[in-house]
Amino acid sequence: MTERGTALVTGGSRGIGAAAAVALAADGWDVGVSYRTRVDEAEQVVAACEKLGRRAVAVQAEVSEAAEIERLFEAVTAELGPIRAVVNNAGVVSPAGRVADYDVARLERVFRINTIGAFLVAGAAVRRMSTERGGQGGVIINVSSRGAVLGSANEYVDYASSKAAVDTLTIGLANEVAKEGIRVLGIRPGLIETEIHEEGRLDRIGTTPPLGRPGTADEVAALIAFLASDRSSYMTGSMVDVAGGR
Ligand SMILES: NC(=O)c1ccc[n+]([C@@H]2O[C@H](COP(=O)([O-])OP(=O)(O)OC[C@H]3O[C@@H](n4cnc5c(N)ncnc54)[C@H](OP(=O)(O)O)[C@@H]3O)[C@@H](O)[C@H]2O)c1
């Protein structure tokens, strides 16, 4: 099997991040996963990666705090060696609601975690990977959402907007670091079966994508593993939808 180096997946304890960690391990990466509170699930992901013959570690870190992101990168590097791929995945949605009813606390939470968190993780990755800073290069995969394009009316326009900012981060950062050995890519999942959805949401709208069903975390993870590998070596600044035609 190809030896690929160390990958870090934020929000790797469950859902898309957990599936991505296992897909990356299957593709030859040693994997660091971060989690916020669900240590048991994060350790299960570590065990699944180890079962595939790779090294893995789980680290608790709040993605919206710069000091915690630094500690996360240091811990994973110390345990597994230099990080060559980062999946910027941790994220939250807001409760369903209309723009007219949003308050500042709600807006600050979703932008702090989804947008500021993504910037902090991307910055920490560039500081370590950039060939201009002594790094070996690498790839950053930002997990956005089809909501960034569709707008998520009557549900969470704030969430959609926080992900649109992540798309712009992908484009701008890709241009900024292309000559420093770093590729930056975005993915936009559609309706994927994970716990992120409010109770009943997938039952209500899960069959509305043109493919007639929600996607699985494994279907997103397969794309992430492809983008992290040198099989996508001529791609940077691209956004790839994995949304069943939605
Ligand atoms: N599922 C979908 O339909 C869908 C569609 C489009 C985009 N996405 C995006 O895909 C990404 C993963 O979504 P998912 O559906 O897999 O979500 P999920 O099942 O709810 O998992 C979220 C993950 O992020 C971690 N996390 C949440 N807030 C955090 C914080 N403040 N600091 C650190 N870690 C935090 C969680 O850790 P704990 O387990 O410890 O809580 C968990 O590992 C998100 O960015 C989401 O916006 C999902």
Query: Please, how many domains?
Result: 1
Overall residue-averaged pLDDT value:
97
Question: Which architecture per CATH?
Answer: 3-Layer(aba) Sandwich
Q: List the bound ligands.
A: NADP nicotinamide-adenine-dinucleotide phosphate
CATH class: Alpha Beta
Binned, the helix content reads 40-55%
Return residue spans where pLDDT drops below 50 for at least 5 consecutive residues.
none
**Distance between termini?**
35 Å
Structural class: alpha/beta
Total count of helical runs of at least 4 residues = 8
Pfam family, one: adh_short_C2
Family: Belongs to the short-chain dehydrogenases/reductases (SDR) family.
Protein name: SDR family oxidoreductase
Keywords: Oxidoreductase
Q: Topology, please?
A:
Elements: E1 5-9, H1 15-26, E2 29-35, H2 39-51, E3 56-60, H3 66-80, E4 83-88, H4 104-129, E5 138-143, H5 147-150, H6 157-177, E6 182-189, H7 201-205, H8 217-228, E7 239-242
Parallel strand pairs: 1-2, 1-4, 2-3, 4-5, 5-6, 6-7
Helix pairs in contact: 1-2, 1-8, 3-4, 4-6
Bound molecules: NADP nicotinamide-adenine-dinucleotide phosphate (NAP).
